[in-house]
Amino acid sequence: MERDKIIQIGINEGEIEFHDDDAMHDKYNEMLNEVYPTPSVAGCEMAPADFLEQNDPTMYRCGFPDFTDSEGTEDFNGGYIYTSEADDFVDNYDDSDEEDEEDKDEV
Length: 107
Fold this sequence. Notes:
Layout lengths: L2 H10 L5 E3 H15 L4 E2 L2 E2 L2 H8 L1 H14 L2 E4 L2 E4 H10 L3 H11 L1
Antiparallel strand pairs: 1-5, 2-3, 4-5
């Protein structure tokens, strides 16, 4: 069975965590806000993620793929999954029940 089909089974069964694009951007923003100090100008403060997104959108966009790579995720069907979690599920997936069904269909 194809890896993508097995991964989709894992997502459907709740064994593999799926994050949509918005959820991963939220995690990215959380990381930026935790790592960088809050910029302050004339007493006005702004979250580092918001500051970066508004003042250097190119750097903000370019940093996102680096973040997802450092998180150990991969693109999957318009969202993200953790590669190690997916690999573990695929390695341990037993599709013998489905192979039995396919054999029955052929008879």
